[in-house]
Structures are given as C-alpha cells and as structure tokens.
Design a protein that fits this description.
The chain contains five helices and four strands, in the order βαβαααββα. By secondary structure, the protein is an alpha+beta fold. The protein starts with a strand and ends with a helix. This is Arsenate reductase family protein.
C-alpha cells in the first residue's frame, strides 16, 4: 500500500495516524517532492475509477490561475487535465491510498482509509 501525502495537510496526517494505529504496512510518497508522472496519474485514476477533474483541488491558487473551473470535463480534455496535475501537483486531491488489491481511494475520511486497509 502506498499513500500520497502532503505533510502540511491535516487529512494526510489523520490518515497516517490511523494507518499507524492499525499497524498497516505502507509506503509514504510526498507527492509534492516526488511528483507523479502523467503515466502514474493515469494509473492512479484507473485504480480510483475517477477522472482527473474528480481529484483536482479547484480552489488552489494554481487552479484559479489556470482557469480550471472553465475547462471542459470530457474525454477530449482528459489529457490536458492530467498534464496540469503533473505540472502542478499541489492540485492533486490528497491523500490518495493505493490498496494492495490494485484499487485506490481518496482517503479524506476515516471510513475511506479503513476501506483501503481492508482491500
């Protein structure tokens, strides 16, 4: 199991606390420092069953500067969104936990983190 975190994020810290309390075996990826490639983002999206706009933090300054709220959310625009996430990793929703069964969750709640641990 791997968890993508921003150490400054309270939801990330809560997820780590829960994983530790449950004795989970996981690897931490500080995705702002170890930025995921476009291929890695595509892979995580496939595992999540989501589209890039579903995991984009549209309230971030970078998102506003890019005008992301106005971008089309369709198959033709998917690559553009993925490129934006790779170039501006702060826009990626967090934490993202990749489960051992090949799936992933956005672990913003205790229930989601527990779900990832059970997979």
């Amino acid at each position: 199991m791997e968890i993508w975190i921003n150490p400054a994020c309270s939801k990330c810290r809560s997820a780590l606390t829960l994983l530790d309390a449950e004795g989970a075996d996981y690897t931490v990826r500080r995705y702002l420092e170890d930025v995921p490639s476009e291929d890695e983002i595509r892979g995580v999206l496939d595992r999540l069953g989501l589209e890039p706009w579903d995991i984009t933090r549209t309230q971030e300054a970078d998102a506003k500067e890019l005008g992301l709220k106005e971008w089309p959310r369709d198959a033709a625009s998917r690559g553009r969104w993925i490129t934006a996430l790779a170039q501006h990793p702060k826009l990626i929703q967090r934490p993202i936990i990749t489960a051992d069964d090949g799936t992933a969750v956005v672990g913003r709640t205790e229930e989601a983190v527990r779900d990832a641990m059970s997979r």
